[in-house]
């Protein structure tokens, strides 16, 4: 491990490896490198990418998971997919993505999970129940799928001595994100009151003086403040991964996804993202319905870029110190409003203009936008799909179930 000037250990990141003299030499000779003493399995090619690994992708038939699997197969890894094919998101799916071994099974089933871990080097844990859902009746399902499922997986990984984990996290762990007050600086507004939302007062005020706030980018070290059941379950997933890493000597890399969109999103379900809801409405010939006033700020990131972030994470997780966890935001770096997404999709589809309804969901946050500088700096990743280009393509591409 390299040392920082203050004596603290610094991860030997993929970005750093590409400046290694061994890599520079290999680029000119096209040789394949095998690194010893740097952690991880498999070998690295001339660009510093890990190859030849056996990767288990839980939820690998899903929206993000299938995109990750496609990239892994393209890179030449051996891929095994474990997916329960739950009807809510897989109404017509009967098999896994091409190029991968598929096992039908639930991550809450310890026997199934332990068998799926045979011979595996790295686990990419995408299986989860996502979205705000309908109401508190969904709470047992969120906790069961996300937290019990993760606990069963981690317990099996400890028994099978599988030490490398990439965990699909979410920006929902931050709650309202980061805000600045002209008088009090950085502040953390509490949950928005129902009376304010009913009156159309959607912006959270400064909790100290009541002044208007400015939304700012949130970094990975921000306090966690989950505001709904789904968010609470994603926080618990991260804590479980940290406890597993400490107890087993494992390594975990958490990717906190922001608003992911793109081909393969499930249609007509409250458990998908807002982009899917807008796209589903347009396919029915209806105007997208935009809640609140449409000015909610988000970071929409294309699924192919999220798959790329997972590839960078899989490359890097083996270089982390034993027993450690590292967290990264995954966002495009471009802030858009929900109203802008609805309008861009409607324009690209050629459908009716969005309707701003003033409705709200009590568990929604007003603004949440990512600072993804750590991921760019440490793993050499960046989003490559411009918003306009991604939305135009998304308008033409089928949703899951169409």
From TrEMBL:
Origin superkingdom: Bacteria
Name the UniProt record assigns to this protein: dTDP-L-rhamnose 4-epimerase
Ranges of residues in domain NAD-dependent epimerase/dehydratase: 55-178, 220-331
InterPro entries, per the entry: Epimerase_deHydtase, Lipid_A_modif_metabolic_enz, NAD(P)-bd_dom_sf
Protein species of origin: Actinocorallia herbida
